[in-house]
Amino acid sequence: MTSTITREHDRARKVSERISELFADDDEFRAAAPDRSVSDAATELSPDLIRMVDEVMSRYASRPALGRRAHDVTADANGRHVRSLLPRIDTVTYADLWSDARSLATAVADVVTPGSFIATLGFASAEYVVAELATVWSGAVSVPLQAGAAARRLVDITAEVEPVVLVVDSGHLPVASDIVAACPTVRRVVVLDHDSRVDDDADRLRTARETVADSGVVVETLAEAVQRGAASAPVPRAESGDPERIATLVYTSGSTGTPKGAIHTERIVARQWSTAHWYSRSDDDAGENTPPVITLDYLPMSHLAGRALVFTTLASGGTVHFTASSDLSTLLEDFSLARPTVAMLVPRVCDLLRQTALGRIDKEAHRTGRSADDVRSEVLADMRSTTLGGRILSAVVGTAPTSPEVVEFMSELLETQVQNNYGSTEAGMVLFDGVVQRPPVTEYRLDDVPELGYLTSDRPHPRGELLLKTTSLIPGYYKRPDVTADMLSDDGFYRTGDVVEETAPDHLVYLDRRKNVLKLAQGEFVALSRLESIYASADAVDQIFVHGSGERAYLLAVVVPTDGADAREVLASVQRVARAEELESYEIPRDVILADEPFTVANGLLSGANKQLRPALTDTYGAALEARYRDIDEGQSTKLGELRRRGPGAPVAETVAEAAAALLGCADTDVEPSARFIDLGGDSLSALTFATVLHDIFDIDVPVSVVISPTSDLAAVAAYIEKTVASDSGTTTFASVHGRGATEVHADDLRPDAFFDAEFLSAAESADPVRTEVSTVLLTGANGYLGRFLCLEWLERMAAVDGTLLCVVRGRDADDARARLDAAFDSGDDELTARYRALAETTLQVVAGDVGDPMFGMSPEAWTALCTGVDRIVHPAALVNHALPYEQLFGSNVVGTAEVIRLALTDHVKPVTYLSTVAVAAGVTDFVEDGDIRDVSPSRPVDQSYANGYGTSKWAGEVLLRNAFDRFSLPVTVFRSDMILAHPRWTGQLNVPDIFTRTILSVIATGIAPETFYRTDTGVPTDDAGRPRGHYDGLPADFTASAITELGSRGVDGYRTFDIINPHDDGVSLDTVVDWIVDSGRTIRRISDHDEWFREFSDALAALPASQRTHSVLPLVHAYAHPDTPTPGSPLPAEVFRAAVKEAGLGDAGEIPHVTKDLIEKYVRDLESLGLLSAR
Fold this sequence. Notes:
Non-ribosomal Peptide Synthetase Peptidyl Carrier Protein, Chain A, 40 helices, alpha/beta, globular
């Protein structure tokens, strides 16, 4: 105890010293200090909220009130304009904020009167605050809606409150259309955070306006509304006069999941604008040197903590900054730019900061050879001053209980005593570090909970449900008299539902929930009794007591096992039941403790009615459970520390899996490479922690988008790391070619001398010419989807001349590589398997290698044999990932192509067939099929837009090959393909992961489709069913492979390029595909309203069995959120390809094939054969 007091006093002293230093040296800090006279004046006006806010905003007029990340607008690879964050913060003064709020109030005054409801949907932002303050000025009722809530729930809430104005951020406009359609009282929609230069914003606004055009609802951006209001006669400030009027409705699902609106009166809201600023509690003697309140807000404005943070900061004359990304992926960068003085923390952010700090400690210890203890203080000090801005003087953790260990670590990191808050939407602040707050609490008591065994007569301390009377207690729930009645006891106390222990007068410790519904540390609610009833059916479980703590993010359990079962068998049994019941990951106990004896009435663990007595069970097993929690947490820290110290020495996939298992608390054996981080229980914040851990281990940046991408599993994360490490380990890297941090890349960057040394370039200029006889062809990527069909084509050709097809396949050795290739042909078609094996026996040679490695990762002898023995190269291999940025694909796809060029120009010249993608045409207005790519697309932006990285990496490959042709006369044939469809002949040969296959599976599995996938307002001709006449651009795999092989083999000189696409204006669209699915015997219900279909479709996909859901279009469902624009044929030119096909007599008598009904019916049969669809 003495050491704790000493530590707290030492931190208080250091905070005081930092305050003095900041006042002396930091002009921004000094200028933001609260003016006591303003606080006093506002307090005197309380509870008149409107006059209080007016006083604060007017008195602090020249100060910066809000901070938001600056952004620019750039074009992505598809030519669409997107936001690009800048490393600075723009601020808005109190005067401008208040002016905009009053202008907005004026703009909506025709529909808003005092007492009207204004609903707001979106993430916390500067413009959100404008809308909130406009509501105050108007005397209206603010209804902040939960941004993450399901659309149906939002519709239910708005139907209950009947708002006249809906304020919504740009990203939530599609949901707003649903609300408007279901809520006729809405007369105006105001759009926040809209940038007309951003294409997605403009598209969403246009669609929203079109959707509500017939309803008379006005949809306008905040800027438009403010401008219109500023040009009008200002509406006067509303006069309240009633402190008990409804000012805000905060909807909470609590633990029951039923939406209910907690009524916050003007008196309650006014408390947040009173003099009780952050430092009055911890620095009462600061006098005139009361530190400023500068905050970073990442909490939703639909949560009481988020609202209080904003309003309290403004009431103190400070600046509230807003995080740049709603998924918090930029949180650490936001901290460093905002440099807050006060930190509002939640358990997830505490975990992120803790893991970041521990990772840096391990890394610095490894770098310097010192112990972790020796470098700890230095690392924490550096993190405190740089990552967190160096000005945090006070910190509070709230929204869920937090363990003492985490609070202590955060206190050490921030070098200030972190306070632990407890409160609720209904009662406001109740406990501050376990001490009852008076005010607002006026009375409290504990009531017995005999059914759970908690009694006020318990010793050594009374225990029971906490009942309160507070000055901030809500009067009830809006339009819910039944719930309001249950909220209060007969004598007017609020029933919190929380069981606490009174260790001393006004000192309370949280224990449990009365209804056995527990809120875990990360905010999820779990119903313990429900879980116990579910797990009781496990075959290895006789009795089970599920235990959780609000300070922890996961559950444990005490189990009386069936005869002979050990802990491992019990846990496996419980997990099987959890999977069968499709429980959430946080509902599954992370570990079990075996009970010493059965739970009985005799030993006091069951009541006379044979119900479990939770307090007795907790008393009996509490110490063991807490010890297990500590062991797991310490084991996690130890394991992550070991991984950091071990570094990249072990196999990457193994390390990635171990790191994920340690971070998420999974057993190593339960984490497969195919597992997705999100499916293991991760989220965006834990993904950021995961990415930080991987950075510490491998010393590379792993973006959060790679971890949480819907199409990325742990194997993909490992592959990304391997490729990035490989690209950084050689002499040629993204930075060495384009410059570190380049946001635009140029064809001029990709010169041969940027990839090859002078010795090789000189030798290449004198390489022997192309051989006239082709006896050995080298194929990369043969085990890929297209690669396997190219493999068959070349096996046929080389068998006819007694030649050899040499396939380079990744593998531990040649046998492993051969096994991987063999597996690609094992789809259940006996004819295909027999054909491949017969050809392979005499014609195929497989070598283990990776084109992204120098010399393909081979020995010098093996490399030399390739260089001298190969006559032609076919290169379809690539790392195909549309989520990864260009820099992270550079090693595999660009350096890999450079290695192919090295092979092609060593000893003798070898013609190259290169597989590119139509994505290289993105952003190019007048794309020329056979033009010089360096002239057609001389530069490309580097951004995070979809497929930008992949398209740019293939563009770079084309540029490299074009340069090699110019300088060394290397013959090159380039094929840019689009969607490669199923093979029309062989069973099971379709590309399951592509969006077309996913869409067919999803439409059949859900049984629903839109009336049309296309926009109906473009004026294009319609089909017989009255739908827009569209076109789907795809070619079957057999034609694609044969065309590439035939046309590519003709290239013995020159440089040729083909856009290998389906150019027909044939009216075969996704709508036609659905027609053919129906004709195949499947029942599909068509839904005329696209938005209604999309909602129903999304819900149905989420409810599919896991086997179908994994392969459904759910990860990419956003692609169908809006109708597509119908196009007559392909938007890209293909005349050169079409002429070549005709000349060679390929396809349908010299014609590029169409998508056919037979092919779609074959898709259905293939999905049945793979077990993804049941047979009809």
